[in-house]
Design a protein that fits this description.
This protein is mainly beta. Helix content is 8%, strand content 37%. A six-stranded mixed β-sheet has the order 10-9-12-17-14-15, with no helix packed on it. The longest helix has 20 residues.
């Protein structure tokens, strides 16, 4: 009896400690127009709280985040909390017309969710149109107190947000591309924490500066918030040690260059151990497709305390933009920190196998109109030859909960309708294969089922690395490679011991990746390409995860202030 009482007391003390260490973190987002000066001109943008990038939110694992959003911009708006699981809070996930209708101009909505089983670097961004070009910020989740990192704590942690800048209204840029059926205009600059750096015109004083103390170690929380470009990142004379990706710890991996796809985050440790001086940090594009891209460089500068010289900083040697081998070596050499904080072992029993082709397609131009896409057609995109189209009258999650028909169907295919030589460049303009019908289809999943997906790139129009983001879950990256996936031989390469955990995977150019996740979160969850040019074209689908058998596995009803369409 005494032993039972002691055990009960210990359990209650642990529970009390857990509750005491959790907090409610509140934030207000006022979204409005903001005029900023970049590249020799004043530009009106949409921004949060008058900041570009937006405010950094810091919380701890176990905290509840409450963000009041007031939309005073002229555009419909939602906020997506990129990488947050949203366990039993799918209403707060944010993709427009998937989990909510947009917040209309002049209206407001409060996002409420708990941060459960996650720590590291995530971020938030708009999930309507191209607004996330300027509506974004870091979401940093510290370990629950009094816990710490699975490595020596750094002297300081610093968000490094990589972005893209247009000398134009980004909504107009997107709309012009959609109206003509062709590709939208490329960006005019890349940015580090909102600043283009001194490589660009009129930007000598618009360069991000990080002051460091010799001998100290810093954690750089690198976030690729660019719309349409993967990026190489490096710092002159300083090695980086990767310790986490997408808020999941990795085995330490030392590298001179980091590759981040749009949507991905990478935490690196650097030690200020070089001669006192100034050193450029820089980002250049990794352009996997043979199409025009903005081939420029954004630079910041790392400056040691006590350095007063006016000498030009040293520049890092970054790869050629077409250097797929370097990008693949980085992506494929990362492994998860098995047994570390919040590590989830790979589920070995698979309930649902899927083979999903991804790529750019064509759509027939409306009669009487000449489109600017290839063969005078309209550019499109698809998964398994289904080109995803968002509803407009009701969110998919509301339709699911209230059993409203006509919003979507549950017949997204497990396999492509036709098998073909997926990565053969000769199919680039095969008119028998390249057109994909528009649809709004989901794949229905049983609660707690384990899903394995082969993501197979295709060679339609232009072979390209596609960063595929899954809402609501992390997934294990079991393997990745080039060419057509071979179920007999490539499955032997699966890492079932310590694969990296991610929420966004760059599917290799002309290749494939295999991911596996457990559908333990009821709701409607989007999976889409995080190159924003491809999203309105249709490179997306969604999963509808059924409720589980208990109240703790059942999605609660929507909040009262959920926006209406």
């Amino acid at each position: 009896m005494a032993r039972f009482v002691f055990a009960l007391a210990c359990a209650l003390a642990l529970l009390a400690s857990s509750v005491a260490s959790a907090a409610i973190v509140k934030q207000s987002f006022n979204v409005n127009n903001l005029t900023v000066t970049r590249l020799c001109r004043n530009q009106l943008i949409t921004a949060v709280n008058g900041q570009y990038p937006g405010p950094t939110i810091r919380a701890r694992e176990g905290d509840t985040l409450v963000v009041h959003v007031l939309n005073q911009s002229p555009y419909n708006l939602t906020i997506h909390w990129h990488g947050i699981f949203q366990l039993l809070s799918a209403w707060a996930d944010g993709p427009a017309y998937v989990t909510q209708c947009p917040i209309l101009p002049g209206k407001n909505y409060t996002y409420r969710f708990n941060i459960t089983g996650q720590e590291g670097t995530l971020w938030w961004h708009a999930h309507v149109s191209w607004l996330r070009a300027t509506v974004y910020g870091a979401l940093i989740i510290h370990p629950r107190s009094p816990l710490s990192y699975p490595f020596l704590a750094p002297f300081q942690d610093v968000p490094i947000m990589l972005g893209e800048w247009w000398n134009a209204n980004v909504v107009d840029v997107e709309n012009q591309g959609l109206a003509t059926g062709g590709a939208p205009n490329n960006s005019d600059a890349y940015t580090i924490n909102g600043l283009p750096g001194d490589f660009y015109n009129c930007s000598q004083n618009q360069i991000y500066k990080l002051n460091v103390v010799w001998g100290k170690t810093y954690m750089l929380r690198i976030i690729n918030a660019a719309l349409n470009n993967q990026l190489f990142f490096g710092i002159a004379k300083h090695n980086m040690t990767v310790v986490a990706v997408d808020a999941s710890y990795t085995k330490p991996y030392v590298t001179e260059v980091v590759v981040v796809a749009p949507g991905q985050t990478t935490d690196v440790l650097i030690t200020a151990n070089q001669p006192v001086g100034s050193y450029y940090m820089a980002a250049t594009p990794y352009a996997s497709a043979a199409i025009p891209f903005p081939n420029t460089t954004t630079r910041g500068v790392l400056v040691y305390d006590g350095y007063n010289s006016s000498s030009a900083p040293l520049m890092p040697a970054l790869p050629n933009p077409r250097d797929t081998s370097t990008a693949h070596r980085f992506f494929s050499n990362l492994t998860g920190l098995a047994g570390g904080p919040h590590w989830v072992p790979v589920p070995l029993q698979v309930d649902q196998h899927m083979f999903v082709t991804i790529g750019v397609n064509l759509d027939v131009c409306a009669e009487g109109i000449t489109c600017q896409g290839p063969l005078n057609n309209r550019l499109s995109a698809s998964m398994n030859n289904e080109s995803f189209q968002l509803p407009t009258t009701l969110s998919m999650l509301e339709a699911s909960v209230y059993n409203v028909s006509g919003i979507y169907t549950t017949d997204f295919p497990d396999n492509p309708p036709v098998k073909f030589d997926y990565t053969n460049a000769n199919i680039s303009l095969d008119l028998n294969l390249i057109f994909a019908p528009k649809s709004t289809k989901v794949k229905k999943l049983k609660y707690n089922s384990t899903v394995e997906i082969v993501l197979q790139n295709t060679a339609f129009l232009a072979i390209e690395n596609h960063p595929i983001h899954l809402h609501g879950f992390n997934f294990h990256v079991l393997a990745q490679g080039f060419g057509n996936y071979d179920s007999v031989n490539d499955s032997k390469k699966f890492n079932l011991v310590d694969p990296q955990l991610r929420n966004t995977i760059g599917v290799p150019v002309g290749g494939w990746a295999v991911i596996r996740f457990q559908a333990n979160n009821p709701g409607v969850w989007m999976m889409h390409c995080h190159l924003d040019v491809h999203l309105p074209w249709g490179l997306a689908m969604a999963f509808e995860v059924e409720n589980g058998p208990s109240p703790s596995s059942t999605l609660p009803p929507p909040p009262l202030d959920l926006p209406k369409c």
